[in-house]
Write a structure and sequence with these properties.
The structure is a single chain. This protein has helices at about 160, 180-190, 235-250, 260-265, 265-275, 295-300, 325-335, 395-405, 435-440, 445-455; strands spanning about 10-15, 15-20, 25-35, 40-45, 45-50, 55-60, 75-80, 80-85, 90-105, 105-115, 125, 135-140, 170-175, 195-200, 205, 215, 220, 225-230, 255, 285, 305-310, 320, 340-345, 355-360, 365-370, 385-390, 410-420, 420-430. The chain has about 475 residues and is an alpha+beta fold. Strand 24 and strand 25 (about 365-370) form a beta hairpin. The protein is elongated, with a radius of gyration of 29 Å. The relative contact order is 0.12.
């Protein structure tokens, strides 16, 4: 293929050319064209296979600019082969092979590329003779016969906004792999080409040290995940949030942070957070001394009132005391059980209804109105309530967004009561279920969640700290 011919029908290459690999998110690479090498090679590090056996994939990082390791582009691709390759110094290496589209000048064509660490090499890519088409001629004495590109592109927003949707490895922390929400997260992720693994939170354990903190599971160290979606049950909140903190320590993106889950799960702590951020809510009081019962009731405006366990979920542990005497009896019973609880104003005008706003990435993506069954004051669907889509007001939208932001939750179900003096936040749920709201609204909530995850884990351009080499 080496020729000095000037036939205009031939695609002419020099021994050095600029190219791009758009499907890997690499808009500019300088490659050495070497007809003496049979196989093409791409610089890669942290090479890790993943995915099902019948559809294996590989993910890896690329430092596209020689000598500039602060810029790392994460990539992924299906594995097409694993091949023994002999390097120029005679060493044999077993490499993963991927297929990708190469763009050079006005031409694009598919090539096979092996992955290997070329960190010590002057070129991040080697273009071997298998990658060359029949009408391509390599002029060994020339360089850059095709248009030159620039590394400057890695410092523009285009690297992030136009990055390809790469395959992600996602962990769902859940002890209930077959429930609706977990099953939907797995199915939707796989439908989008990702690898989604359900991890039983209670089976995780941690190696805590300064150099290499790790999360282990069922006898093995867990691999690196691009994202973790926590579905932490109330019964294991302390241990579950410890596992999330460990993932945060190793640098994994967690949809909801550990501190936000902890604060939202403790009703007393949650109401203190809402109060600190001046978010309207039902008047709430808490005390531990039995001598304070009378004053405690008066603080929330007398009966009827709500007595609620601090760690209640799905409406369990929530009691309506319709008279002062009933309130005293319930409080006395809870204290006798040494249970932590709070007393809360009953918003009668809500009439057994509330509004659940689902907030993802600072936006209300869906809302439904839940109505209690006859004779019941709790509107939770688990307590027999019904749900339908509802149009919310701007004030309700704003308070839902503010509530999720107060807990730093990227995904939250915010429950709002419609009272005579405006919307009041009843609860912020850090592990909202999707079944009721997807069926009530007809919206694909999980798709919205993945769109946000994909945007957040895309490679971000680095700020230029030194002169970038042009060639």
């Amino acid at each position: 293929m080496t020729d000095s011919s000037t036939d205009q029908t031939d695609f002419r290459l020099g021994w050095e050319e600029w190219l791009s690999l758009p499907s890997l998110g690499l808009p500019a690479l300088k490659a050495k064209v070497d007809t003496g090498a049979r196989t093409s090679a791409l610089h890669a590090f942290d090479i890790e296979p993943f995915g099902p056996i019948n559809r294996p994939k590989v993910r890896f990082g690329v430092h596209p600019i020689p000598g500039r390791d602060e810029l790392s582009i994460p990539c992924s691709a299906p594995i097409v082969d694993r091949r023994e390759v002999t390097s120029s110094n005679g060493d044999m290496e077993l490499r993963y092979v991927i297929r990708t589209e190469v763009h050079m000048g006005n031409r694009s064509w598919p090539i096979e590329v092996t992955l290997t660490n070329r960190g010590a090499m002057a070129y991040r890519m080697l273009l071997g003779r298998q990658a060359l088409m029949d009408d391509m001629l390599v002029a060994a004495a020339d360089r850059c016969c095709q248009p030159e590109l620039s590394y400057d592109v890695y410092h523009t927003a285009d690297v992030r906004t136009h990055a390809p949707r790469r395959t992600l490895r996602v962990a769902v922390l859940s002890r209930e792999p077959k429930n609706y929400t977990t099953s939907r997260i797995v199915a939707e992720g796989e439908n989008r080409g990702h690898v989604v693994e359900v991890i039983d939170t209670s089976l995780c354990y941690m190696a805590i040290n300064a150099d290499s903190p790790e999360v282990h599971y069922d006898g093995n160290r867990l691999p690196r995940y691009d994202a973790v979606i926590p579905r932490i049950g109330a019964s294991i909140t302390p241990y579950g949030t410890a596992v999330i903190r460990q993932f945060e320590t190793v640098g994994t993106y967690c949809v909801n942070p550990a501190d936000g889950i902890t604060a939202s799960r403790d009703k007393l702590h949650a109401h203190q957070v809402l109060a600190r951020h001046r978010i309207n809510m039902p008047v709430t009081a808490f005390a531990s001394s039995p001598k304070d019962t009378q004053h405690l009731i008066e603080l929330v405006g007398n009966a009827p009132l709500i007595v609620k366990l601090l760690e209640s979920t799905q409406g369990k542990g929530v009691v309506l005391a319709e008279t002062r005497k009933a309130a005293e009896s319930v409080i006395s019973a809870f204290r006798g059980l040494k249970a932590n609880f709070l007393v809360q104003q009953f918003v009668k005008e809500a009439a057994g209804e509330d509004v659940r706003c689902l907030v993802i990435s600072g936006k209300v993506v869906a809302a439904m109105k839940r109505s209690a069954s006859e004779g019941e004051f709790r509107s939770n669907l688990h307590q027999g309530g019904t749900a339908k889509m509802v149009r919310i007001t701007r004030e309700e939208r704003d308070i839902a967004i503010r509530a999720a932001k107060a807990f730093r939750l990227n995904m939250a179900g915010v429950d709002i009561l419609r009272s005579n003096d405006g919307p009041k936040v009843l609860e912020v749920n850090s592990s909202p279920g999707f079944e009721g709201i997807e069926k009530a609204t007809g919206k694909n909530i999980v798709e919205t969640l993945y769109q946000d995850i994909e945007k957040r884990v895309r490679p971000a351009p680095v700020r230029r700290s030194a002169t970038v080499p042009k060639d």
